[in-house]
Amino acid sequence: MKNSVKILAVIVLAALVFSGCKKEGTIVVKNNTRSTYEVEVSDDLNFLAHWNIAPNGSEAMPSIDYDCNFGFVATQKDGYFEHPQVVRDVKYLPKKGSISFKIESRPAYIKYVNITSDTYQVDITCPANSTIKQINLPGRTLDSLEVEAGYSYNLKFTQLDGYVLYPSTREHTVNADCGYIYTYETPNLVKGGNAGEIEEYEY
Fold this sequence. Notes:
Layout (H helix, E strand, L loop, with lengths): L1 H20 L4 E6 L5 E6 L4 E7 L4 E5 L5 E9 L9 E8 L5 E5 L4 E7 L5 E7 L4 E7 L3 E7 L4 E8 L9 E7 L4 E6 L11 E4 L3
Parallel strand pairs: 1-7, 8-14
Antiparallel strand pairs: 1-4, 2-3, 2-5, 5-6, 8-11, 9-10, 9-12, 12-13, 14-15
């Protein structure tokens, strides 16, 4: 009988200790992109987790049992051309609370500029994701198109007026990475060839 009581007491004590130390709440990371991301999660004092999260995958971990800020850094590992997307965030996690970090792909933009006084037709195509865009661009104007990053696009300028025998044309291949603007200009005999300008835009 005494042994049974001792065993029961040990079980109850163990249950109390376990429940008192249990870490409640969760930290969740969700990858909502077509790429794999290397992810690091850390609190104010310590490094906590390091994952490679597959496209449309997720990871989770128990939250620590004290109030803390959590830093999050996700770096794109594939599905880009030159510039991997880096996602950073900081969130406050109260004791026994839950937080989630999401990885979303920023779009890219193709900006087309008509530096002449003539009208140009602009064609943007990408068979890989069925993008087809055609506009007429009057002289001295510009426009842009938001596109899905991670694909190559063909950009073609075709002169519609102001020529004598043959219209001027120019084609570019645009390798679009997340968060970048790709600017291209119409042909210009004085200025010569234009390889285009690339700049990262702000969140």
